[in-house]
Amino acid sequence: MLRRAELGLVAWHGTARAAAKPEAFIKGHSWRVGDVMTQPVVTVDEDVPLGRVAELMAAKRIKRIPVMRGDEMVGIITRSDILRTIAASEPDVVAVGDEAVRRAVLARLCSDLGLDRGSIDVTIENGNVNLWGEVNSETLREAARVAAETISGTGGVRNRLRIVAN
């Protein structure tokens, strides 16, 4: 609805492009909800975890999702709702001490990233976490760093993971 012809916003896309894409013309001029809404409609049940809702929004490139209870819509969740939840969340709390931090980092690497406990190790040196071992991609190496940084009590992370081909 934000690209309505009445608002002059359809012109942003140019008339030549609108002619080439009849879908854009329909979305910019029609007054029928069915013509402007995303098809098929993506909905979630009210008990779906927020992380799954965020995954759906990213995968489908949508900004809001109706929340259902059976056949009845009970709400709508938006990207700003998810951002507010993230901003209000508290970081994970772990017991103090290097060994507690080490165990928490290892648990996060294995459970969240699926790393094999036999191929990685974590040491603590002057309050900083050192990641050791092997992973199979640069993306996984960086994800391990991010996972370690999210643990409360981590002073810093030295990522010494090596990338090995499968």
In short:
This protein has 166 residues and is of the alpha/beta class. Helices cover 40% and strands 22% of the residues.
For the structure shown, list the relevant keywords:
166 residues; alpha/beta; CBS-domain; Histidine-containing Protein, Chain: A; 3 domains; three-stranded mixed β-sheet
Poorly predicted parts = none
Number of helices: 7
Globally, the shape reads: elongated
Count of extended strands:
6
What is the chain-wise order of helices and strands?
HHHEHEEHHEEHE
Examine the secondary-structure arrangement and name the CATH architecture of the largest domain. Answer: 2-Layer Sandwich
Range of strand content: 15-25%
Question: Which class best fits the helix and strand makeup?
Answer: alpha/beta
Overall pLDDT level: 84
CATH topology name of the largest domain = Histidine-containing Protein, Chain: A
Report on the biggest sheet.
Answer: 3 strands, mixed
Question: What is the number of domains?
Answer: 3
Return Rg in Å: 23 Å
Strand order of the largest sheet: 1-2-3
Span of the ends, CA to CA: 49 Å
CATH class category name of the largest domain: Alpha Beta
Helix content range of the residues, please?
40-55%
